[in-house]
Each structure stands twice: as structure tokens, then as C-alpha cells.
């Protein structure tokens, strides 16, 4: 079965998340996007776990669905969705671990997958002995990530432990501020049981292919969204059995016949791609920082935040452009609302963009179908010529981006400055 999976999200119980992040809203937006399997996020939080148990019911092995999902979809007239199946949920959560190891303070975020509520409760029972799970959907615990992995695997050998957004400077396994140089340093004897890392918004698989140490593991991509409309800004595409073990096995075995490709941000759009200092509006390519022979901000003198591109370059043992023979392909995309907003030079959340977005979903199907599959001639019939051209340019990678740095997202431009897009088709 063709499956689109976005496994890393957050509930409204996590900091800086939309208050609309409830199970019904997540189901609704997953359908609009074209996501088959959505992570629940935040299963360590007691209130969110209660909501999950109250609102979900078992579906296929290890997966869950919204109770009364078919009648719910009908009552809301989900015109934009490919709603033959409905959304499936897989139990996931992110843990922030802060601890000392190797003489340094480590801050590593980890994504956990669990095959059942029973297993989740075993994990939560052990984690409650270590710290407070009630204050945040993504709890901060003083635990070695290796010990966290042990807790998950002791609860069930079917659990999956995956380093989250593996290159983010502040909170990741390879982060420039508090990470490690190898997975072995972090997970020690448990490293053979770490079957994947999450590349994060500021890196794509091509950047990760430069590290031979990652050849044996899969590279997954997820939205890490804090509001429902951001679902599937990154995702994973499979052709496999619709079940927990079917999906996890495709990841574990890095099986290209079942794990087809990942959907990626253009990494420059991520908010930690370049080196820089947000307070001083300083952004620079790694080569520029290295040429200066100092890590000091040229404006204020404080240290620059070393971004993902620099960190990959530091750990890489292969040249840029190297492609491992068994690598899983990827496709860079830009969310549809951002494409429409950019070509019309209006905000992505403007009423004009939202109206066009909903119209396209109604006429053409889920957002990912539009971005990846809808033929160009159908796009031109359904929308203005410049929006259709914008989607085509994104598919071809013909975009210009001011790279993100130090927590600032990159700015996308589909048409060059001064370049005139094709005129809109006539309204009458």
C-alpha cells in the first residue's frame, strides 16, 4: 500500500504550539495534506495520553484511527481530502535529554515510537522516576540518551529510537553546541539498534550522504510541526504493509523497494542552515566564516552560532555530491500556500491565498498530490498560470533562497528579483 508518514509532531501540551493541536484537528489536516500515518507526538504527557486513549481506537496492527472518523469526515465535507482510508496514528513522542558525558554537557532530542498504549505506559512509568512529565509535552529529563533507549527497548523490542533533527546546533546528536561526533559516542553498545536518524529541516539526505558512518542507517524526515497546517512539510513515502511493523521494518532494513523516498524542505529554508548571529542580522556561508579565521560575530564580537552546513562539513569524510549506491531518494518541496503567496507577493496566510489553496484542494486532491503528481496541464486549468509555473519550478528545484541562520527561517523566492512571472489567466 502507498503510505505517506509524518511521525514527528507535537500536541497543544508542548511549548509554543497551537491550541488547536487536538486529535480531531490533526486528523482533519492530515487528510487535507494526504498523510496516511501521522505520529501522535507527546505520548509522555498525561493529559494528551488521556485524550489519545479517549479519541482513538485500534485499526491495523500497532496503528490507531479516530473514533467515528468516517462520519466526522462526512459531516465536515472534507472536499480536499483523499479520504478513502482515513488517517492512521502511530504512538510517538520526543524527549529532551540534558546530561553530562565525556566531560561535556549534552543536549539531545530523541524520537520514540511505541507499538501500543500498554508499551507507552511502561515507558512513562520509568521516565516518571527520572523527572517531571507533566510540565511539557516534550519533557526535559536528566537522562543519558543511551539509558533512554534502554528504557524503550526494555518496554518492547518493537520500539524504535531515532535521534531527532540530528544536526540542530543546540539540541541534537550531532549539534555543534552540545552533540557528539559519532553515533557510537552517544549510544555505545546500543548503536546497532539505532536504525535511523531524522535529518531535520536544515539538512537533506544529500548532506548526510557525505558521512560514511551513516551508510547503514535510514534517513527519515518529519514535519516536527507545532501547528496542524505545517503537517507534512517533511514526510516519508512507503509502499508497504499498513501496520506498525510493516513501516518500522521498511525503515530498519532501509529497504528501497518499500521505503521509496522522503519529502524535504530545501535545507536552506531551515532556520539553522548557515552560520550567523540573529541579534546582529549576520549570516554567512561556512567558507566565509572560516576565511575570517574567527568565530566571533563581526558586529558585536560574541560567538556566531555554527549552523548545520558547517557541522556537516566538519564531520564529512566524502566530497559534496557523493551518492551512496543504496541511498533512498528524496524530493525537495515547498508547501503549497507558500508557493501561492510567493508568486502573488502576498502573505501565505492571507485570505486570497487561503481561498486559492482550498479551491485547488477541492478540484485536484490532497496537497502532496498537487505538489508531486498533478500534471502541468491540469494545474494550468485549475489555477493561474504563475501558480502553475511556481509549482513546476519547485519540482525542478529552480528556486532561490536566502538561507536561514541562528533560528531565522530562510526566505524562498520562486522568481528572481526583477523577473516577471507569467500573467494570470483572465478572470472573465
What does the model show?
This protein has helices at residues 23-33, 46-55, 69-75, 117-127, 145-155, 183-187, 205-208, 244-252, 286-292, 308-315, 336-344, 351-364, 367-372, 376-382, 385-396; strands at residues 2-6, 37-39, 56-58, 64-66, 88-101, 104-114, 140-141, 160-163, 196-198, 218-220, 235-239, 259-264, 275-277, 282-284, 330-332, 400-402, 411-413. The protein starts with a strand and ends in a 15-residue tail after the last strand. Strands 1, 2, 5, 6, 7, 8, 11, 12 and 15 form a 9-stranded mixed sheet that branches. A two-stranded antiparallel ribbon has the order 3-4. The chain has a two-stranded parallel sheet with strand order 9-10. By secondary structure, the protein is an alpha/beta fold. The chain is globular, with a radius of gyration of 21 Å. Mean pLDDT is 93; it is low at 74-82 and 424-428. It is built from 15 helices and 17 strands. Helices cover 31% and strands 18% of the residues.
Topology summary:
Blueprint (H helix, E strand, L loop, with lengths): L1 E5 L16 H11 L3 E3 L6 H10 E3 L5 E3 L2 H7 L12 E14 L2 E11 L2 H11 L12 E2 L3 H11 L4 E4 L19 H5 L8 E3 L6 H4 L9 E3 L14 E5 L4 H9 L6 E6 L10 E3 L4 E3 L1 H7 L15 H8 L14 E3 L3 H9 L6 H14 L2 H6 L3 H7 L2 H12 L3 E3 L8 E3 L15
Parallel strand pairs: 1-2, 2-5, 5-7, 9-10, 12-15
Antiparallel strand pairs: 1-11, 3-4, 5-6, 6-8, 11-12, 13-14, 16-17
Percent helix, as a range, is 25-40%
Poorly predicted tracts of residues: 74-82, 424-428
Task: Report the structural category.
Answer: alpha/beta
| Residue share in β-strands | 15-25%
Specify the overall morphology: globular
Q: N- to C-terminal separation?
A: 43 Å
What's the average pLDDT? 93
Output the number of helix runs.
15
Quaternary structure classification: single chain
Radius of gyration: 21 Å
Largest sheet, in brief, is: 9 strands, mixed
Would you report the number of β strands? 17
Amino acid at each position: 500500500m502507498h503510505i505517506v508518514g509524518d511521525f514527528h509532531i507535537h500536541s497543544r501540551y508542548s511549548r509554543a504550539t497551537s491550541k488547536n493541536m487536538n486529535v480531531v484537528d490533526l486528523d482533519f489536516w492530515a487528510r487535507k495534506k494526504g498523510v496516511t500515518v501521522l505520529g501522535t507526538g507527546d505520548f509522555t504527557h498525561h493529559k494528551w495520553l488521556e485524550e489519545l486513549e479517549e479519541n482513538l481506537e485500534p485499526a491495523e496492527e500497532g496503528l490507531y484511527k479516530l473514533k467515528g472518523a468516517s462520519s466526522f469526515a462526512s459531516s465536515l465535507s472534507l472536499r480536499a481530502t483523499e479520504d478513502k482510508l482515513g488517517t492512521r496514528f502511530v504512538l510517538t513522542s520526543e524527549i529532551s535529554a540534558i546530561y553530562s558525558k565525556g566531560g561535556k554537557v549534552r543536549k539531545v532530542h530523541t524520537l520514540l515510537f511505541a507499538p501500543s498504549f500498554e508499551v507507552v505506559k511502561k515507558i512513562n512509568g520509568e521516565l516518571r522516576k527520572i523527572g517531571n512529565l507533566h510540565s511539557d509535552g516534550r519533557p526535559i529529563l536528566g537522562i543519558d540518551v543511551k539509558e533512554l533507549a534502554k528504557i524503550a527497548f526494555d518496554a518492547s523490542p518493537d520500539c524504535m529510537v531515532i535521534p531527532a533533527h540530528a544536526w540542530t546546533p543546540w539540541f541534537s546528536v550531532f549539534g555543534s553546541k552540545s552533540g557528539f561526533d559519532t553515533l557510537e559516542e552517544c549510544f555505545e553498545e546500543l548503536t546497532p539498534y539505532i536504525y535511523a536518524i531524522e535529518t531535520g529541516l536544515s539538512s537533506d539526505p544529500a548532506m548526510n550522504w557525505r558521512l560514511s558512518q551513516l551508510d547503514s542507517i535510514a534517513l527519515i524526515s518529519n514535519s516536527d510541526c507545532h501547528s496542524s497546517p505545517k503537517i507534512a512539510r517533511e514526510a516519508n513515502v512507503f509502499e508497504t504493509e499498513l501496520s506498525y511493523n510493516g513501516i518500522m521494518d521498511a525503515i530498519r532494513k532501509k529497504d528501497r523497494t518499500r521505503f521509496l523516498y522522503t519529502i524535504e524542505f530545501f535545507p536552506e529554508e531551515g532556520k539553522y542552515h548557515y552560520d550567523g548571529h540573529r541579534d546582529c542580522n549576520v549570516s554567512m556561508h561556512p567558507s566565509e566564516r572560516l576565511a575570517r579565521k574567527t568565530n566571533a560575530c563581526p558586529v558585536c564580537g560574541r560567538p556566531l552560532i555554527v549552523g548545520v552546513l558547517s557541522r556537516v562539513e566538519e564531520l564529512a569524510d566524502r566530497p559534496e555530491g557523493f551518492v551512496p549506491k543504496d541511498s533512498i531518494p528524496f524530493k525537495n518541496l515547498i508547501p503549497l500556500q507558500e508557493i501561492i503567496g510567493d508568486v502573488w507577493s502576498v502573505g501565505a496566510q492571507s485570505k486570497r491565498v487561503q481561498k486559492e489553496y482550498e479551491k485547488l484542494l477541492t478540484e485536484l486532491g490532497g496537497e502532496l498530490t498537487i505538489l508531486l503528481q498533478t500534471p502541468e496541464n491540469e494545474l494550468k486549468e485549475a489555477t493561474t498560470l504563475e501558480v502553475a509555473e511556481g509549482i513546476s519550478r519547485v519540482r525542478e528545484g529552480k528556486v532561490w533562497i536566502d538561507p536561514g541562520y541562528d533560528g531565522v527561517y530562510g526566505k524562498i523566492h520562486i522568481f528572481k528579483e526583477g523577473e516577471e512571472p507569467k500573467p494570470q489567466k483572465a478572470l472573465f
